[in-house]
Amino acid sequence: MDRRLVPAFAISPLRELARIENEINKFLKEFMPQEITTEVVAWKPRVDVYEKDNNIVVEAEIPGAKKEDIEVKIKDNAVVIRGEVKKEEEKKEENYYRSERFYGKFERVIPLPADVKVEEAKAEYQDGVLKLTIPKATSEKEIKIEVK
């Protein structure tokens, strides 16, 4: 196939996405009030969501993050995980052949499959994995009412 006939975005989709992002940022800076900030989310943590012992458990991979840089909220029956993985200073003496690790801001909204007891939620972060344990709200299907 003649390379001159192939659109530029077909050759490098990531380069084209970066160009589009830059155009959007230029537009927003030019036409939007200064108080409004545009925050680009660089990546989304991968998650597992499962049920165990009447709890909803959410495990999110956030390698390289410090626990003080992670924020967790439960809102509208969804878990919102956001934060930032900060890149350490570049190592000038070493030659890099590849850099594939994720750095920057992240955010993930995970809808919960059941109603939960928000006030009893627990979170722990260990070895790059954030684990949330949220008790399910129990709703009695059948209630016996005493007749007086």
TrEMBL record:
Family: Belongs to the small heat shock protein (HSP20) family.
Every SHSP domain range: 38-148
Keywords from the named record: Stress response
Pfam families: HSP20 (PF00011)
Occurrences of domain CS (ranges): 42-148
CDD domains hit by this protein: ACD_sHsps-like (cd06464)
Protein known as: Small heat shock protein
InterPro entries reported in the protein's UniProt record: A-crystallin/Hsp20_dom (IPR002068), CS_dom (IPR007052), HSP20-like_chaperone (IPR008978), Small_HSP (IPR031107)
